[in-house]
Amino acid sequence: MSQSKIRAVIVDDESVIRNVTRTLLTRYFSEQIEIVAEAESVESALVAIRTTAPQLLFLDVELQDGIGFEILDLLGDERKKCHVIVITSHGTKFIHRAMRQDAVDYLNKPLEPEEFKIGVERTIAKIRESQPAEQPQTPAVKRNTMLSIRNNTGAEAIVPVSTIVCCKADSNYTQIVLLDKHPITASKTLRHYEEILVKYGFVRVARNLVINPEHCQIKLDKRNLVSVELPDGSREQVDPAYQESVRKEFLDVVV
Fold first, then answer.
1. What is the pLDDT of residues 121-180, one digit of tens each?
2. For the whole model, what pTM was predicted?
3. Which CATH architecture has domain 6-130?
């Protein structure tokens, strides 16, 4: 079963900006995002959001009847369900308020397609992270799913789940190993990433290791114990606590 489309609402009192936003979403994200409503005022935005329960909100700062941030304050608990991308023509004037409102991104008018695309990709990743597992994901969905990773310096990377080979515990950090790329030292624990990735078929095989079976070979060694061979040729022994479950789950690929 594929993931449902993300519901989006566009709030801007300029029809030109609404049109540009709609055009860019159609160009880059037609398979992932559905625009369920548009609004041009605080009042109409509140009605649209409460009616459609969007997960993504494109929010202009200055509207004809008030400030866009007022909408977030008036939503109350409903605000928690909505990821916000702020759009403004006022440079960095409102960026601190946007940060206090936990906006995912802050874009200036006129919208630059590449910056817009990056911001929306980051937001999609955060929305997918926050969603509970609906059904086991199909390979096609897994290929298209993006994961937002914040490294130990605070920088953020967006990577396809399908390119992750494994995740290794590194104290309170996690080393995320990617295909043909340098590992990312992520600022969160292995347990955090295990909870996200297990619905995409990833499996914990040791206290400090979660693997993507699509890229790792699960084998029996000379002692008839299960081990994992990574793409670089290195081997990791499956912990005794996981030997039986891994053997059962991957019996058809054990050699």
1. 999 999 988 776 554 444 444 555 788 898 888 888 888 888 999 999 998 899 999 997
2. 0.53
3. 3-Layer(aba) Sandwich (3.40)
